[in-house]
Amino acid sequence: MVFSFRYKPIRLKSGDILYKPLIPITIDEQEKINVIGILDSGSDITIIPKDLADYLQIEILGDNEVTGLGKSVLSAKQGKINVKFGRGREIYAFKIPVLIPINEDVPIIIGRLGFFNQFKITFVEQEKRVEFKKVENIENISLK
User: Fold this and answer.
1) What value does the mean pLDDT take over residues 23-38?
2) Distance (Å, rounded) from C-alpha 87 to C-alpha 141?
3) Residue 105 to residue 114: CA distance in whole angstroms
4) Cβ-contact 97, 141 below 8 angstroms
5) What is the pLDDT of residue 38?
6) From residue 54, how far is each of 10, 16, 39, 94, 113 by CA, in Å?
7) pLDDT tens, position by position, 71-93
8) Can you give the pTM of this predicted structure?
9) Which domains does the chain have, with CATH numbers?
């Protein structure tokens, strides 16, 4: 079964409006937290803010550096989180690796590793929506 989410409008400081594929996920650690993240096919890994990671007491698995297209380097901690994602009766639970930038204030960015391999994902730009269809054959994920 296929389910979809419409892009959400974001107003920039310039006053321009961009439409982004913002999707709801539930982080299911010691406590369940419903959040909205930017689905980013250009990101290798999911990134969550340090204050959220601290609040959820996410186990830190190691250190890493994050390099973006602008060649900027951020120091980050590595971890894994349990997430639930779906719509209606189609709710799926799985674990994904995350990076937690130490000194940067970042939004939640949902990257490919561990998330994209769970679904066939179709971006329908003309209609400003993203579609998901669960796939059964998934590979194991690793941070290394």
Assistant:
1) 92
2) 24
3) 23
4) yes
5) 96
6) 27, 34, 22, 21, 22
7) 554 667 888 999 999 998 899 99
8) 0.83
9) 2-134 (2.40.70.10)
